[in-house]
Amino acid sequence: MRILLHPISTEKAIRAIEVENKIAFVTDLRANKIQIKNEVEKMFKVRVDKINTHIRNNKKIAIIKLKQDTPAIDVATKLGLI
Length: 82
Prior knowledge:
There is one protein chain. The protein has one domain: RRM (RNA recognition motif) domain (Alpha-Beta Plaits). It has a four-stranded antiparallel β-sheet with strand order 1-2-4-3. With about 80 residues, the chain is α+β, with helices and mostly antiparallel strands. The radius of gyration is 12 Å and the shape is globular. Helix content is about 35%, strand content about 35%.
């Protein structure tokens, strides 16, 4: 099962990357917060502080706040968002 489907690249999401150290992904509907955390930490070699999820338009959105020592802008650069 693929947990992270794709990053969200709206203006609001980019601002959250720069200001709040958060990055947003569309995830599998069946994935829970622990699975999402493990996948993000394994894929990008970062430390996750907190995860908020919600379902909108039959898609699960995960907003992932990273620890202060791991900037979200580095992850966004790897993904080609910035």
